[in-house]
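Predict the structure of AMP-binding protein.
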Amino acid sequence: MTSPVTGTTPESFRVASPVDLPTLPDEPLTAALERAATDHPQRVAVDFLGATTTYAELADEVARAAGALLALGVRPGDRVAIALPNSTQHLVAFQAVLRVGGVVVGHNPTYSAGELAHQLADSGASVALVWTKAVPAVLEARDRTDLRAVVAVDLAHDLPRASRWALRLPVARARRTAAAMRGPVPADVPLWHRLVHAATPLPADHPRPSSSDVALLQYTGGTTGTPKAAVLTHRNLVANAVQGHAWTRHERGREVVYGVLPFFHAFGLTLCLSYAVRIAATLVVLPSFDPALVLAAQRRRPGTFLPAVPPMLDRLVTSAEEAGVSLRSFTHAISGAMALPAATARRWEEATDGLVVEGYGMTETSPVALGNPFDASRRPGALGLPFPGTDVRVVSQQDVTADVARGEPGELLVRGPQVFAGYWGRPDETAEQLLPDGWLRTGDVVRVDDDGFVVLVDRIKEMIVTGGFKVYPSQVEDHLRTMPGIRDVAVVGVPGGDLGESVVAAVVLDEGQDVDLAAVRDWCARHLARYAVPRRLVVLPDLPRSQVGKVLRRVVRDQVLALPA
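Done. Here is the predicted structure for AMP-binding protein.
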């Protein structure tokens, strides 16, 4: 173990990891599956709603899928779009594209044709593997892209045989389930499972990608502007999986990981598609987060490790209490994408008798960069300490070459083997984010406390400047969440005349409650600087959130601006 905080003077310091990084293997991400299939061939690799696939079977399926991709003309460096919900075939397609040297481009399968068109055209994808319900949107976007092949993936093919048979029953429930899982596919669009079944498996000696090859284009920035693709290499993704293994100290071949996060998101992709395979875990796959589905799986195959976001943890505990289902098999959970409230952490740990810790990262860091230790030193609400092999600095927002004093807010810089190679086709934006000496500008304002833990203050792009003063929305939100009657809140800045910006609180109220601006201002004035007190209150029925539950402040701001002053 090393000291969390290092440096030569109290005024200048850097934060180091408490865990040493093992030697990184010089291998592609796909090597982990080959190892798991050799060491644990009969272990269940995937459980999808009760349909199981062993590691030996998964490796065979991936080899056949890779052969199908070769037949479609996919060659090293070609971009292959994957627009699928969580499923066995999502994992198969992901591994197969990488095995032939292709580059995975992940997409949200519920995106509109316009959203998909931008990303497909930007990446230059030549082949798209698409959920049947998303096929119409991809076909509508196709003329604006370089796609030469669109392949439909039927999720029902991954179900247990009895469930597939039940979908054909002429009853209302079966029809509703089938409609939710499947969509109509034109006759000229090939079906993935038929191509894979007919394919010649990829020979074992087929050339493998190198660790320096690009593995993934992951789109990010959709909440702050036009999405752009972060370029992640095999080495980046392998490094983050190795870092995670050193952090959790999970034993290979023993864990049961629950895949409730979307696999097309960086958080779900790394923890479920990469890390779970590296530790030869059983991955319990849910097509979407549904507490009833999770609890049904828990009865069938109890989980041990849950990557999630705070609202998921709260809903699972509530549902488990109501249904009388034990969650005590879960020894570890990692929470990300937003702050982990102390109350949520306490509820989860009381329900499971296990640990939940907060992690921090971004798509550009593959994605995990910091985490709380899995021991008594964890701090709910803090981002944590650097992952193994990760360097962290906190610098002036005006001068990124100058470190700030401990305890002072500044921009977080990160450097490590998981830091991305840049943005696809965007050299200017890459130069803005990646400094010449390898430091990544995160755009997050943090401080480092005396114990070395990094604590989020806010995002630079969402900081409000009013009357020359800086207001961090998260600080105002944290205080307002303690006010009786307020269930949720987002604080944004809107044009405020001579002030520059005006602070607005958009709140969701508890049922039957009524809160006015005067009460909000009085509550905030007790603990916040005068300039940080909201000047306007907007009551909303709900707050817009991303796929992983993060509040979209930009969307809230647009909603506020659309309302009468």
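The chain is about 30% helix and 25% strand.
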